[in-house]
Design a protein that fits this description.
alpha/beta; Chorismate Mutase Domain, subunit A; binds manganese (II) ion; binds phosphoenolpyruvate
């Protein structure tokens, strides 16, 4: 059976970094007693600035090997260089993960994929720090092409300039959802620790991930989180992890309950016909837009008119408020529609430019 399908949800836990032998052993003992499927601990830490703790390297691998032998729990580490792979394999690592700062670099990912040829141990690929679904998918494919049969994706959020909305890394849920749409069979794991950066919000994001059909969770766990050497604010104790796991509601995609299915099917049919109407209306809106393009061409007006766009934003947001639709959401939808509308009008103006310049 596939490694990641052994449990639903598949739970990965352990400290951000392996700090001391005692810390590794204490955590592994506690986690092996609750339903944790894979132990994690960073032994090489990619730090933002020099001079920070960068991991205990080979010595930490010895502690992990000891924890695995003593508590019978599989172990995973982050690898960022082919030399890391060789060393971690020597100490019996069961799974590797690729960090967000490595996934961004196709050359480095390829070196790692090459180093794993013929090894075939499961690899978990964190999303790149930037919100680029193709880059994430590409990194996953590099391991698959090299022969890694079990590849999982870890959603750990995306860097942004501001953390004003309360996340350390923005979740940008449509990105992992799009990855899962493209690759439905791929195991998708959420890392609420790195998304929130805040231990008080881990349960909330973990539940949200399960409700979005994620297959597993990676949660940083430390015996004394406040004094952790890395990522202190986001780690939880094994006891807190146990409570989080107990609180999670695991929902299904399918059910045998016919009454629920019948109601769902009815609502889906209503939704299908609404969507058909929405698309027909957008089509009609685009036809109007092209007619307006012809008038703008005749009257020598610009396709984009900032005043009109401001008016659209204000009036559509007002209308959306009648249905409790958030302003940001409706503006985003209209940005897409308006963009397509302007693209069509520019094409209309372009015909005129060609005539004036005698291109055709
Ligand atoms: C980690 O898992 O501790 C880590 C460094 O994660 P990321 O690559 O998501 O920053
Ligand atoms: Mn961390």
């Amino acid at each position: 059976m596939s490694f990641f399908k052994k449990a639903k949800p598949f739970i990965i836990a352990g400290p951000c970094s392996a700090e001391t032998r005692e810390q590794v052993m204490t955590t592994a003992q506690a986690l092996s007693a609750i339903s944790v499927n894979l132990f994690r601990a960073g032994v090489w830490k990619p730090r933002t600035r020099p001079g920070s703790f960068e991991g205990n390297g080979e010595q930490a691998l010895q502690w992990l090997a000891e924890a695995k032998a003593t508590y019978n729990i599989p172990i995973s580490v982050e690898v960022a260089e082919p030399a890391h792979i060789d060393l971690a394999l020597k100490y019996g690592a069961d799974v590797f993960w690729i960090g967000a700062r490595t996934t961004v670099n196709p050359f480095q990912v390829q070196h790692l994929a090459d180093a794993l040829k013929g090894v075939n141990i499961p690899v978990m690929v964190k999303n790149p720090v930037n919100a680029d679904v193709d880059l994430w998918q590409g990194a996953i494919e590099r391991f698959e092409v090299s022969g890694t049969r079990e590849v999982a994706a870890i959603h750990r959020g995306f860097s942004g300039y501001t953390s004003a909305v309360g996340y350390r890394n923005q979740p940008n849920w449509p990105i992992p959802i799009e990855l899962k749409r493209r690759r439905p069979e791929l195991t998708l794991i959420c890392d609420p620790s790195h998304i929130t950066g805040n231990r008080n919000r881990i349960a909330e994001i973990a539940q949200k991930a399960l409700d979005m059909h994620f297959d597993g969770l990676m949660i940083e766990t430390h015996p004394d989180p406040d004094n952790a050497w890395t990522d202190a604010a986001q780690q939880v104790t094994p006891a807190a992890l146990k409570l989080i796991l107990q609180s999670l509601i695991v929902r299904e995609e399918f059910t045998d309950d016919m009454s629920g299915l019948v109601q769902l099917e009815y609502l889906r049919q209503l939704m299908d016909s609404l969507d058909a109407e929405i698309i027909d209306l957008i089509g009609k809106r685009m036809e109007l837009s092209e007619k307006m393009g012809i008038i703008k061409r005749e009257c020598n007006l610009t396709a984009y008119q900032p005043g009109r766009w401001r008016e659209i934003v204000d009036t559509r947001a007002e209308r959306a408020a009648l249905h409790q639709l958030p302003k940001d959401f409706i503006v985003e939808v209209y940005e897409k529609i308006h963009h397509e509308s302007i693209r069509r009008q520019l094409a209309v103006l372009e015909q005129n430019n060609k005539v004036l310049k005698g291109d055709e």
